[in-house]
Amino acid sequence: xxxxxxxxxxxxxxxxxxxxxxxxxxxxxxxxxxxxxxxxxxxxxxxxxxxxxxxxxxxxxxxxxxxxxxxxxxxxxxxxxxxxxxxxxxxxxxxxxxxxxxxxxxxxxxxxxxxxxxxxxxxxxxxxxxxxxxxxxxxxxxxxxxxxxxxxxxxxxxxxxxxxxxxxxxxxxxxxxxxxxxxxxxxxxxxxxxxxxxxxxxxxxxxxxxxxxxxxxxxxxxxxxxxxxxxxxxxxxxxxxxxxxxxxxxxxxxxxxxxxxxxxxxxxxxxxxxxxxxxxxxxxxxxxxxxxxxxxxxxxxxxxxxxxxxxxxxxxxxxxxxxxxxxxxxxxxxxxxxxxxxxxxxxxxxxxxxxxxxxxxxxxxxxxxxxxxxxxxxx
Length: 379
Description:
The chain is an alpha+beta fold. Helix content is 32%, strand content 28%. The protein contains 10 helices and 11 strands. The chain has helices at residues 59-66, 74-78, 108-117, 153-164, 176-188, 192-213, 230-239, 242-247, 249-255, 348-375; strands spanning 25-27, 30-41, 47-57, 83-86, 95-104, 128-134, 269-277, 280-293, 296-306, 312-324, 327-339. Strands 1, 4, 5, 6, 7, 8, 9, 10 and 11 form a 9-stranded antiparallel beta sheet that branches. A two-stranded antiparallel sheet has the order 2-3. Helix 5 runs antiparallel to helix 6 (192-213).
């Protein structure tokens, strides 16, 4: 998702596009759900409990209410622009965020459908080497296309770090058991094909564990000498954004990320991807949760495992129906959150600069999606 040349964060593979010029816009009134009571508890619990009360409102007012935008310049959005702002500075030392708002020329349901099937691979500017959906339950063939055979320096870095991994130490995000497993595997298969197979099995095991146990079962990163929980990183970032956490309370609970789900959990769509972060090839596992809410939609895209450069990332989206010049369109708010160790050493102006870079990278992804909407319509 973003800050590739700073903290190593790369934009998610599921952005939503911006709109096209139009003469007028009409926001469709609708029924919304807001939170009337919330309890936020402890860093480890990260619990979010809410009582939901229905009320009527419009998308633009919703965006103003929970986002960091001081005002929404709707004309700028309708003319094809992307509203963007750095997220509020966090007390959480590893956290960084950015928010964007834009429209698409497709209805809300169609925007969500295209979002879920969008392929980032053709866009060289995004530095995505591989992207693959994962079945439920996952199987070994879901990861067979993973290949680290390449002369690119970014992939060579990942190969070198993998081969340097020992049972006791690694610069990659691994448990101690995973470091032992990876070191033993590559010792007998040190070529690129062998290393690819070793990583494929490790990713499969992590994906299977996530499908069984969700966020509470995510293994920590330990091999670097410091224990880091990716689930805790995600929860602490979101708890620093209480207005956003309230807006997405139901989705966050039903995904199992924040609070007691109080019922059946949503079933995510999983994927893995290989991309360049700060010029270093990075493997990640992701999960996408979709929650229809009447005539609008909320979406959570989480990178719950990242092999290096950062710890975890999340994208939240809300998509509302609007009218664009008499035609159906969608208004989209997007929030991107990243937890990276490098950020703990930045303060003040440096943190603001990193936030601005993150915002520009997110806008780049959105524009790529917009381009695909124009030239490759899906029917």
